[in-house]
Amino acid sequence: MATIHRVAVIGASGNLGQSITAALLKAAFHVTIITRVDSTAIHPPDVAVTRTLYDPPHLIRAFTGQDAVVCVVGLAGVAMQNTFFDAAEAAGVRRFIIDDFGWGPEMRNLPELDAIFAERRACHAYAQAKAAANSGFTWTGIASGSPIDRVLRLFPAMGFDVASRKAIIYDDGTEMFTGTTLAGIGAAVVGVLRHPGQTANRFVKVMSIKTCQKELLAAFEQAVDGDWKVQRSGACALIASGREKLNAGDGSGLRDIALAHIFDPGEARCVVAPSWEESDSRLLGVEEALEERDDREHVYKDCIESYTKLADHAAAAWNIPLQVTNEETATDPATPKARSKGKATVESEPLTLTALRTDLASTQKARAALQSQLADITTQLDNLSTQQRLSQQQLTILTKQKQDVDRKLRDRDEELRGKSKLVEQAHDEMAALGLQLNVAEVRSERLEKENKELVERWMRRMGEEAEKVNREAGWE
Description:
Elements: E1 6-10, H1 15-26, E2 30-36, E3 48-52, H2 56-63, E4 68-71, H3 81-90, E5 95-97, H4 114-133, E6 138-143, E7 146-147, H5 148-153, E8 160-161, E9 166-170, E10 177-180, H6 182-194, E11 202-205, E12 209-211, H7 213-223, E13 229-233, H8 235-247, H9 253-263, H10 281-284, H11 290-297, H12 301-329, H13 336-473
Parallel strand pairs: 1-2, 1-4, 2-3, 4-5, 5-6, 6-11, 7-10, 9-13
Antiparallel strand pairs: 8-9, 10-12
Helix pairs in contact: 1-6, 2-3, 3-4, 8-9, 12-13
Pfam family, one: NmrA
Keywords: Coiled coil, NADP, Oxidoreductase
Organism: Cryoendolithus antarcticus
């Protein structure tokens, strides 16, 4: 399969996207960042950025000339992935790394997570169909588990509050799960693109560490001074809490379900591979966590100690001729004793020279290793400097946005105060109108009473006059 050089990254501004982009740049790939027209994300100044609409015609134009596309748009953009597949195939892209970076399609999930993973599986099936119909189009999924160092920064949600030295251990805390560092995920993407034939049309499984809550708690207790307050709970309680929240319309219940998904005892849902050796990590260049590697190599401790002792004995043997030579230099060469020892000195010189050459070779090898370490550290420093510069730019933008929001908030406060005054005026007018209405009602009642009295008086008068007429007329 042809070598991949040109790589487009969709979603380069996210946590995974930044790490993957940095790894691709370090590996000397020609990287282009694909982003929306209205995106305000800040990208490295030395990377090409294509701003485009996310519809087929514009995406085809953006993907044209690229050997591979890496999709890291997150859950919100998974629904767009089929459009990305179509555009990539039409543009002649040879490898598409799909947006998954979870535990792969074989993971057994809780029912509440079915909708999320069903959408991902639909994307996997669509990519498989594309590759089956077109041999020039291939795909790869990367099952990396949790981005473990990012999760560590969000540890309160995982049951650990480092600042307060509090921990919540679910069940016995021994349910194992795997994770990969952000740098490891970037290395996995680079490894896939460097081994296109071995990674085509399948999911690769990578991991930096395999651990559990109990091991993490022990590590925290050793690293952080002070006593830890440990609270016990269970995955069943998490599931019940999550379902109750979801039934009440609270979306945070999914977080409880996701945690139970990891810690549910005996399920091993979140283990991408039984061990680092049984994953694709070695092929793709994903380094194992130091503690895990030390434990694995501990079985060779006796061999290493034996070899060290043998090397010490060999070094001592090499030093014997050197001591003879030193004694010779302190002896008068004219004496017979000096002449007899001169042969030993001559014979020891080849051995001494060999030892020096061996020592020189070891020193040069150590020097080369140190130079390699220095180069790596320098590269890391450059990356950190770039990230710091980008963070400073983002800080400037966020500060400006904060000032704009503060100004809008002050405007809203002024508008609210003005409307409050209008409401108060309306209340005063309503009170005045109420008083006027009361006065009018009292006046109406008085007029009605007066009118009634006038009618009664008029009726009495008319009655009296009628009686008078009757008397005068003699009609009574």
